[in-house]
Each structure stands twice: as structure tokens, then as C-alpha cells.
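Q: Here's a chain of 252 amino acids. Please give me its 3D structure as C-alpha cells.
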Amino acid sequence: MTTYHLLNGDCLAEQLRPTKINQDFIICRECLIVGPVAADRLDFFWNIRAQFIASTYQESTEKYFEKTVRELNKLSNLPEHSEICLWFENDLFCQVNMWFVLSLLSKYPTFKVFRVFPIIANKADMWKGFAESTPKTLEQAYHSKIQFSPDDINLGKNLWSAYQNNDLEKLIALAKTPSDCLEYLEEVCQAHSDRFPLDQSLGRPEKVVLEILKTQSKDFQLVFTEFVKREGIYGFGDIQIKSMYDRLIQFQ
């Protein structure tokens, strides 16, 4: 049986190079936590995402299809009964991407799918994921992998459907489903719901950025560092936080 590793990004691929883990990597290069995701067909979905990435991050649609779509399309060409290890962290950014991947993998019932969790020694670092892993802890993580049951994969697929359709009520309900392969679901799904208050006021992430701007600093790097410290559950990178910062700084 051949084992493939579906990674949450290129940085993790570089971290895994010095390990004894086989190097059959498939890399998820998406940020589904932002931008449009609603589409009833996968080809429509890729086109919508390509246009969003091109307009938001100044990257051509051709490059998106080459770097992102082509990479994930490798899943459809893997041999039957392959072992697929999903290396994703627990924050919202990673979990949403993983739900999408599980929706793709649900079409291939012969695959054996595993979750590889980051080894976190200190609970205060729980949202840092693989960032501070060593070759040794990455190998430990791999050898501690947990297999997804059919119910786990179906849960991931349903979480993606609820997220894709912006059905926050269903997302919160699904998050109560126990799963050894999907940790912190209730906290993560609530954090996503908090982005969209019913009164249409600022969402939880924007409120935190605004509070930092008002009470601590207007320097972006300091704002970014403090936001990650407070709200690592979102898994936002500097690009996502800079977008909020640029919208809010003008009112200070």
C-alpha cells in the first residue's frame, strides 16, 4: 500500500524533508476561510476561487490552476486502497481546508484516510500547530496518526457543505458530533459563527483588531502579533489580518 501525505502548506513540506517519512506529498494551497465558496459543481467552484485569488492576491488564474487545482486533482489519480495522511492543524483556517479535502476524499471509499495531529507540549501553544515542530516530533506525530472512520469522513463532508452554504446553525449543530479525528470542533465552529453577528456589527476578529488599535498599537506588525496571541483559533495569516487592519485603521 502506498502512503501519500496531504499537507496544509509548502512550509510543512520543507519541515518534513529531513525526516524519514516518505516524500509523496500533495500540498493544499488554499485559504477557504476567506472569499466565495458557494458552487454546486466542482468546476464552478475552482473558477470562482481562481477569480477571487486573482483579484485579491494579484495572482493569475492560470497560476492558481497550476499550483492549487492541479495539486489537489492528484487525488483522483491515486491507486485504489492508497493510504492518505492529512496533516492539518486545529485552527479554523486549517479545519475548513480539511473539511473541503474530506469532501473530495469521500468520493474514493477504498482510500484509508488518517489524521496527523501536531505534537503540542504546552497547551498555550495549541494553535501554533506544526510551526515549531522538529523532525523528531513530526515523526512522532506521523506514528500517532488516527484513522478516519466512514462516519468521520461523512462528518467532514457535511461540515464543508454547511460552511459552503453559510448555514451557521447547521455548522454549530454538526460541531457537537464526537470525532477523534476532528478536535476542537465546537470552539472552531463558534469562532466562525462569531465572524457574522446577527446585528451585522463588527465580527469577533474585527473587534479584536479594533481593540488592539485603540489600546495597544497602530503598528501593523505589533497588531498582527497580538491578534495571533489572542485569537490563534482563526489561523489567520498576515494577509488576512492586514485586510482587516487596512479597513479599520482609517477610522482611528
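Q: Can you summarize the key feature?
A: The chain has a mean pLDDT of 95.
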